[in-house]
Amino acid sequence: MTPETARPPRRRLSVDRRREELMAAALELFGARDAEDVTIDDVASAAGASRALVYHYFGGKQELYVAALRSAAGQLEARLREARPRAHDGAGLLGDLASGLGRYFDFVEEHAAGFAALLRGGPANRTGEVGEIVDGVRQRLFRLVQRQMRVEEPTPVLRATLRSWIASVETAGLDWLEHRDIERATLERMLVEQMVALLGVAARHDPDARRLLEQHG
User: Fold this and answer.
1) Contacts of 201 (CB under 8 A, 6+ apart)
2) How far apart are CA 75 and CA 206, in angstroms?
3) Rounded to whole angstroms, how far apart are CA atoms 215 and 217?
């Protein structure tokens, strides 16, 4: 075999690094297409690896899908843990919410494929491990918002209000990734203002929501 026809040597990577590359390639694909439409061959090709290697590390597509989603969820939750509320002062509540929202959108922007895969990829019926991963992320975000809004034990009205807002944030994130036709800072301000508007509606039905709204002036 001549030097011109010799194949380049395969890179030697650690087990962890190779797994990370395969999961990163999988997230890109799962974030852009339904999981049912992604094959092991697609992942292997995107990662520059062999089909056998993907099976060696993950056993199959479902195992790879779950591992990739867990990786994305872990990265997002680590980012959310960095958002700590300030000392209790009424003027800082919306500022804390805006700060946490900024960290959330940092992840959306820096890990677009992982975010999209978490919230859009996969089967419509999210059961089993996949459902647990997605629900876990949403519960973590709910607890973060709850802390930042200084809500220790939400009433049913406040719980529904906070969860409705989180659903809006998720939808806005996906829309922003798809279109990118609005400034991110503008979108974040709109979402904070949307929280105030939701609290205004909730305040008509719940005294705790009314007191919370009064703290925001």
Assistant:
1) 161
2) 36
3) 5
- The range of the structural domain enclosing residue 171 comes to 66-215
Question: Rounded to an integer, what distance in angstroms lies between the CA atom of residue 186 and that of residue 137?
Answer: 25
Q: What is the mean pLDDT of each run of 10 residues along the chain (217 residues)?
A: 44 77 93 90 95 94 92 89 54 80 93 89 62 89 89 95 96 95 97 95 96 80
Q: Which pTM value belongs to this model?
A: 0.82
Number of independent structural domains in the chain: 1
Domain of 80, CATH number, reads 1.10.357.10
**Residue with structure tokens 């061959």?**
41
Domain assignment present for 57: no
Domain assignment present for 15:
no
The owner of tokens 């009205």 is: 157
